[in-house]
Amino acid sequence: MSKVSNAIAGLKARLTLGDEGLMRMLPFAAWLSFLALIAIYTSHRADQKVHEIDKLSKTRQSLEAEHTETREKLTKLSLESRVMRKAQALGLQSPEERPEKIVVVE
Fold this sequence. Notes:
- This protein is mainly alpha-helical.
- It is about 75% helix and about 0% strand.
- It is rod-shaped and about 120 Å long.
């Protein structure tokens, strides 16, 4: 046999796993499988967190918009002219003289 065929035969013998070699590699393969499962799980959880953050962000934006609209309505309703119109509709009148300021001296 030539040197090339001897090298190929030696390489083939090294790459062929018997029962003993397979049993020796089994714990390492199990460890790699465990690490792969952990990587898949953490990636999945990160994706879930991203979706949850996106949903909460949209909820926050809608609540901010609702808050701004409500504040604008309250500002418009609290104008003195509108308050006076509503008070007159209820039969209330504005006082003709200004109230006096009471100062308490201790």
